[in-house]
Amino acid sequence: MNDDDRIRAYEIINRIASDVGAKCGVFLQLNFPPGQSKFSSSGLGHRNLTMLVFRDRKKFTNVSEAEVKHAFDPLKPTAIDNAGFGYEGFRVKFSDGRIDCLPGGVHLWCEITPEILEVLDWIFANAYGMKQA
Fold first, then answer.
1. What is the pLDDT of residue 70?
2. Average pLDDT, the chain
3. Rounded to the nearest 5°, which phi and psi values hold at 76?
4. Half-sphere exposure of residue 23: CA atoms within 13 angstroms, side-chain side
5. Contacts by 84-90, CB closer than 8 A, 24 or more apart
6. Is the dihedral of CA 79, 61, 50, 71 positive or negative?
7. What is the reported pTM?
8. Residue 72 — very low, low, confident or very high, per pLDDT cuts 50/70/90?
9. Residue 68: its pLDDT value, please?
10. Quick one: which of 27, 31, 35, 34 has its CA closest to 10?
11. Please, are residues 121 and 113 in contact by the beta-carbon 8 Å criterion?
């Protein structure tokens, strides 16, 4: 696959992600970090994913930042660092990746496991106010 084909494939994949996200009221984007030129199509959507609900929100509402941090406890993170940039939020680090949890959405730089999905369900329901239908 040459670079033009790769760029076209990324464009198509993210257009599909955008359409899927729009149905749920979120901005959904698959990320392709530099240096990771090899990927399998079966792994798409299982890591390196951005889900934004409120692009410009700088503070958590409905719950405190401490409550959101506490939601990650069952995942046994190796570290939790402040996100910075004048925003509430933090980076939750694991041995095999991290999650950037911000007041407006999450960036998943790790494998999305059932345990991570449980935490994300809580965050989306409580921090972002998106109840399941």
1. 96
2. 86
3. 50, 60
4. 6
5. 86/58, 87/58, 87/59, 88/58, 88/59, 88/60, 89/60, 89/65, 90/65
6. positive
7. 0.83
8. very high
9. 94
10. 31
11. no
Q: Are strands 97-102 and 105-109 parallel, antiparallel or unpaired?
A: antiparallel
Judge whether 107 and 100 are in contact, CB under 8 Å.
yes
User: How many residues can be counted in the chain?
Assistant: 133
Q: Which residue in 106, 117, 98 sits closest to 51, CA to CA? A: 106
Span 81-107, average pLDDT: 92
Per-residue pLDDT band at 116 (split at 50, 70, 90): very high
Distance separating alpha carbons of residues 51 and 26, to the nearest angstrom? 6
Beta-sheet strands, E only, within 14-125 = 27-30, 49-52, 79-82, 90-94, 97-102, 105-109
Q: How far apart, in Å, are the Cα atoms of 14 and each of 2, 8, 27, 79?
A: 19, 10, 10, 30
